[in-house]
Structure prediction request, 649 residues.
Amino acid sequence: MLDLNSIKVGWFLGYRQIKRASLWTNLLIIIIMILTFLNLVVVSGLLVGLIEGAVVTIREHYISDIFISKLKEKNYIEDSQNIIATLQNIPGVSSFSPRYLVSGIIEANYQDRTDFNNLPEETAAIIAGIDFEKENAVTGLGSLIVEGEYLDNDDFDQVIVGAMLLDRYLDIDSPSFTVLRDVEIGSKIKLKIGDEAREVTVKGITRGKADEIDRRVFINDKQLRNMIGRSDLNVGEISIAVDDQYKPEFVRDVLLQNGFGRYARIQTFDEAQPKFIIDMKNTFALLGTIISSIGLIVAAITIFIVIFINAITRRKYIGIMKAIGTNGRSIELAYVFQSLIYAIVGSVIGLILVYVVLVPYFNGNPIDFPFSDGILVAPALVTMIRVCVLIVVTALAGYIPARIIVTKNTLDSILGRK
Amino acid sequence: MELIIKAKGIVKTFVDGEVETPVLKGIDLEIKRGEFLSIMGRSGAGKSTLIYQLGLLDEPTGGQIDINGTDTLALNWSKKTDFRLKYLGYVFQDYALVPELTAVENVALPLLMRGIQTNKALEKAREVLHTLELHQQVNNFPSQLSGGEQQRVSIARAIVDEPEIIFCDEPTANLDSLSARVVIDILKKLNKSGQTIVMVTHEDEYARQTDRIIKLADGLIESEEILTPAK
Ligand SMILES: Nc1ncnc2c1ncn2[C@@H]1O[C@H](COP(=O)(O)OP(=O)(O)OP(=O)(O)O)[C@@H](O)[C@H]1O
Ligand SMILES: [Mg+2]
Prediction:
């Protein structure tokens, strides 16, 4: 039933109908199509991007491409020095940062403490001993400094404090989440690890919107080692950045082939990603799909109504075209083509808006959510699928009302009966 | 002379719930190839109804209509559309041009439906419009044409595909007498070159210029007058 000539005549009629429709009608419908497209791509893109922002933060500023962490039952990665020595010789490893990790307590404002009946002002934190230069090369920790400055490797008795340990950076007030008040750049705080205690000066504050960065205190690795008396040089974790030309899996496999899997968990970023993040991503994607489906239905109804009204007011002419021998299929196709033109023009403008304006904009200006910097995620394949869905739905929304009118009795249509 | 339409016992009864309105009560009519027939009668006599049955735009309640040797009532819906495209042309009282198509596009539409290339169809349509002295108006939209011009475009659309028969339902009713005469002259000229025409009219003056007049009354042919016995 779908012969070439009907398609040709359908196009002949549909194209002319759009061309000669009022500019405002066309503009209005196309704007609806653009908004539908944006709703389809941007809403779920932002929802996914919210999580993706957190993932990107963790990848760029904490885990990097490969993450070596201690085995569950151990306190640290055994044979760390051997692993580090090997890392230096694996091609593709561009930089890596080993971190000594110990849990400790930090106390502030102890000099002004007058009432010893009150608890001291302290909170638990992970104390990370790092090589500041290496860490910066791998995770750009220096770029996350929001107050004060980053440290050099020969800065002793000085620390960088994560923002979530300080009350002025924490929006939520939770009793289980103790924080320090009145800690400024230059403030003295006490680091307590086991029986050891040491007074250090706050030199900088980092903020990365990830617990692993923001609930830590960073200190010179040699000094931490001295404090805890660690002579075996075994670290708690190592983040490794891999050159773009190399696959992280390659570096991971080399490490595993060296047998380091016995001492540590060696994972690529994808493997190290916390499961809840993946779950959340899927949940948000589903949510986005639901929201944009509603938008799609609204757009379909809009197109349906527009075409239905158009076809009803032109019912007489549809009857006449049928009377003089135009087959119904051509006339239905004329409306399908009109809907398609609207959908395609709307999608193309939408695509340009998304990829030329919105994606670069959100990449440059992420939305400042408390737990992540939200970006717009619009993978080409997903977008293409959505464009196809939009086009198919629109074509259908144009076809059905056209069919309803076209199948009405020819003479009744011409005479305006019934 | 060869018959092009052979209609026997055409009955048309409109049914609306309980109410039955018999409009055509058994009309026998034969039309010869090349004949120019006019149908007259009082308003409500059933002239339009008859022409819709003959032109396959409606389904009679009963009877038989053979056109060109085809039992047309046996055709299904889409075959009928095809049949209309191939053999029949229509001129309506209110011109019935498609508003978003220009004059030439309106005329080209039946040709496009027959699968003729767009360029060739438009070329042929232009030629026909020229013969009807509409050179100036080929690219005008219907809204940019006078009533007489629109009716001429509508005739062009009816004849462009060289149909066997054209049906005209009061083609001059909306026109001033000058434009009406132009339309009648065009139809006469077409008839001279062999075109079969069936025309409904209220004007005695125009009916007198055709070959035969039939008068409808109360759903039946009341009288018949042959003006050109030669046919
Ligand atoms: N769909 C319909 N339902 C019921 N009655 C109808 C219907 N269509 C036409 N009629 C009736 O049939 C009769 C004939 O109508 P028709 O249109 O054929 O008249 P006509 O001879 O063409 O009149 P006019 O000169 O005014 O055009 C009229 O009485 C009309 O009311
Ligand atoms: Mg009538």
